[in-house]
Amino acid sequence: MTERSLEHPPLTRLAVLPLLAALAACSSASPVTELAPETYGLTTHASTAAQAARIGVEQARAHCTAMGRNFAVTRSEIGGNEYTIAFTCPRPNPNPLMVEQAPPAPVLVEPAGPIATGALPPMPAPTGRNLY
């Protein structure tokens, strides 16, 4: 084979463009709907499940970004060429440098009285009876 025969003629590459455009056009998405207060959802369809999921996540993230909020998936389902996502758009942390701190450790209080001094009262003498 010659080097020339390995090259694709420009017409062949151009013929692929409509095919790629048709595949991209095969995707659709429902509008974002509010499922519950602060919870949203949408469904996407595409030529593959992976493409439907990618489009769904991108559109959900864009919805939250347009609101100036973060993005969090609450539930998703994928099947066939369909992807359904439920998500929230939580408010960003106003102070990202502030991290949640653990509650302070409990303070141990030294006991007072005979236990603290080690002076315990003597044990009673055994009576021979079973107390249990």
TrEMBL record:
Keywords: Signal. Residues 1-29 form the signal peptide. It comes from the Bacteria. The keyword Signal applies. This is Lipoprotein.
